[in-house]
Design a protein that fits this description.
- The chain has 2 helices and 5 strands, in the order αβββββα.
- By secondary structure, the protein is α+β, with helices and mostly antiparallel strands.
- It has a single domain (about 5-60), classed as N-terminal domain of TfIIb.
- Strands 1, 2, 3, 4 and 5 form a 5-stranded antiparallel sheet that branches.
- Strand 1 and strand 2 form a beta hairpin.
- Bound molecules: zinc ion.
- One of its GO terms (cellular component) is cytosol.
Length: about 60
């Protein structure tokens, strides 16, 4: 994913910063503990599509 695109993306809930996960399939908001999927290179910034981060993931990276 384009790093510049990541720069302008913010969490739809808290407007905080997002981080890409290691295999670049999700964008994580640590503040909310949510992972937003990236489908075909397009981030899906919908709370209804997000999954909760587990405890390990919240501490990861
Ligand atoms: Zn958030």
């Amino acid at each position: 994913m384009d790093p510049k695109l990541l720069d302008i993306l913010a969490c739809p809930l808290c407007k905080g910063p997002l981080v890409q996960n290691r295999d670049k399939t999700e964008l994580w908001c640590r503040a909310d503990g949510l992972a937003f999927p990236i489908r075909d290179g397009i981030p899906v910034m919908l709370e209804s599509e997000a999954r909760p981060l587990d405890a390990d993931e919240r501490l990861d990276g």
